[in-house]
Amino acid sequence: MNENKMNIAVVGAGIAGLSAAWDLTQAGYTVTIYDRNDFPGGRMADVIVNGICTHSGASILFSFNKEMFDLVEELGLSDEVTSFGADFEMNCSDGSMEYPLRVTPSVPFMLAHKALGIGTKAKLTRLLPDIVKSGLMTDPCLMHTAKRFDDETMVDYITRVVSEEYLEKYLEPLFRAPWHWEPEDIGKAYVMSLMGHLVTSDQRTFKQGIGFLTRELASRLDVRLGTTVENVREIPEGGVTLRLSDNDGQRTINVDAVVMAIEGVYVTNVVEGLSQAETDFFDAVRYNPGARVYYGLKQRGVEDKRDWFTRSSPSKVSLFHVTDQDQIVPKGHVQPATIQAELIPELIAQIAEEGGQDRVESYIRDQIREYFPTIDEDVESIAEQWWDAMLPLWPMGYATKVADFLESQETSPKRILYCGDYLSQSHTGGACASGRGIARLLQRSVGEKAHEPSA
Ligand SMILES: Cc1cc2nc3c(=O)[nH]c(=O)nc-3n(C[C@H](O)[C@H](O)[C@H](O)COP(=O)(O)OP(=O)(O)OC[C@H]3O[C@@H](n4cnc5c(N)ncnc54)[C@H](O)[C@@H]3O)c2cc1C
Fold this sequence. Notes:
Blueprint: E1 7-11, H1 15-26, E2 30-34, E3 46-49, E4 52-55, E5 61-62, H2 66-74, E6 81-85, E7 89-93, E8 98-102, H3 107-111, H4 118-124, H5 128-137, H6 154-161, H7 164-179, H8 188-198, E9 203-206, H9 212-219, E10 223-224, E11 228-234, E12 240-246, E13 249-255, E14 257-260, H10 267-270, H11 276-284, E15 287-297, E16 305-309, E17 317-323, E18 338-343, H12 345-354, H13 365-371, H14 375-378, E19 379-392, H15 398-411, E20 416-418, H16 428-450
Parallel strand pairs: 1-2, 1-14, 2-10, 7-16, 14-20
Antiparallel strand pairs: 3-4, 5-9, 6-9, 7-8, 11-12, 12-13, 15-18, 15-19, 16-17, 17-18
């Protein structure tokens, strides 16, 4: 084992920060992770709120998350992975009809699809060359690998190559229902970085909940929870100073290097002395806000279902997920029967405008009554979720900006390095790959620099 004693602070105990910290610790560095939350995992955690096991973000893992599943294997946790298969289905309504949706649809499924006309089905074949290109030329965990396709919005691309019908009835709900994105938020590069891989992937989680991996990593690392990093600054003598704040007050520490694994939209609030190019990049990072409500029911016996809604439907909720017996929770927790409701982006924007973030449920109770008429008698507990920064957006042009930023980080690395989903892909596999990539970069380059004599 490498006896390198370089001190590294990782800011952010999401999957990106934990993955980076794990690899650096394995390489012999002394690593401490700081997170302002009182739980590890960031947006990949199981958090029990009012007796309900909620997901702090992600619910499924894609089998193409290579770096993540390599890490799972390395940690000896492969037996803990379980698969939903490739063909689990949602029921989608556009206000006039109901039809099935699959994230990884097969050709026969699409050909038999009742919401798509013959013209659309015929034109779907026109996507085939791009599906092949996507599969061969891009990495689904590193969206910037699709930057050569960054020349069109998703809306223009899909309506040009296939049809508006395919966009509105099929693709839009896949992005909008779970992730609260409108198709206008997404560029062709994002689509190209995923579609060739999605068709061959299956969807997974951990038997003990989506947060199992981050909990395991945190238990093997030095993680300081409830600690906000208020300021990070490179010092001319070499090294980096961090100002921390926790229950004991404020303090300052010095380390040799820092991995910033926080949501990109917060970086400029924390890091001092950014170059103009870095400031321009971080100013261009955008996340959407998000809101979700879980209802814990008094009794079991509800029918399991997943109902999704398109933008043309009048629903205030884009997705209802009713689960009678959820076994995929941390050991020891007994999950009640639940209804999970995702709010539509328009309502989320209204709530943000009105400052209603702490009473999200009150905005949808009437809708829930329509969907589940006995809710008032049946509900036992409620867990509300609000994200100011839920998921990075990938508009046209962003893949190119990320590629340029990563290239400059790679070719002239500093003592403060950046990773996370906004630099890779809006999913856990991207964040993990980004964290592992930064650990390799740090070992290659900044590690050497840190051993140079101070000026
Ligand atoms: C609702 C939702 C649904 C999703 N669904 C899926 C899905 O099904 N599948 C999938 O793969 N992905 C999904 N994702 C995306 C996935 O959760 C994220 O891409 C991934 O978890 C991001 O990891 P990260 O480490 O980059 O960031 P995070 O997990 O956000 O970690 C950043 C950490 O930094 C901490 N932090 C921030 N500022 C400071 C500070 N100043 N001081 C100290 N700590 C700080 C935060 O508390 C946080 O813990 C979803 C996300 C959301 C929100």
